[in-house]
Amino acid sequence: MRRAFSVAIFCRNEGEILLVRHRRLGTWLPVGGEMEPGETPLEAARRELREETGLEGSFPVGLGVDGSPPGLIGYEEHPAGSKGLHMNFAFVADVATRTLGRCDEYDDVVWVSDASAVQCPKNVVQLVALALRSTTGP
Known about the structure:
The chain is α+β, with helices and mostly antiparallel strands. Helices cover 18% and strands 36% of the residues. It contains 2 helices and 7 strands, in the order E-E-E-E-H-E-E-E-H. The termini are far apart.
């Protein structure tokens, strides 16, 4: 079975998370995309954040176990049709502004403190809540 590795970035600003309405899928998702060959998940997260929003983010350290990349808050997988198994690394990134660059992958944006207010997958609702709770450890 084919596997697709990707990243999702939950951009955090002033107690809310950025979700975008994905043009092709027609649902609300965090920014993100597939990892390129040779990239680490964190490198892919930084690149996707920059490509899709024009923003640079601060990926907080100390959210996971020792050795976890900065900002990593979770991992999930699901079937993705012809792509096979979609294996997704979820990151939180603090951003200084809500001013976004243009991107043709989505057609609307919203900042939420509760993702259940928009039509999105259950795992996105759960990860938004986790991203808002995540703070740097001691």
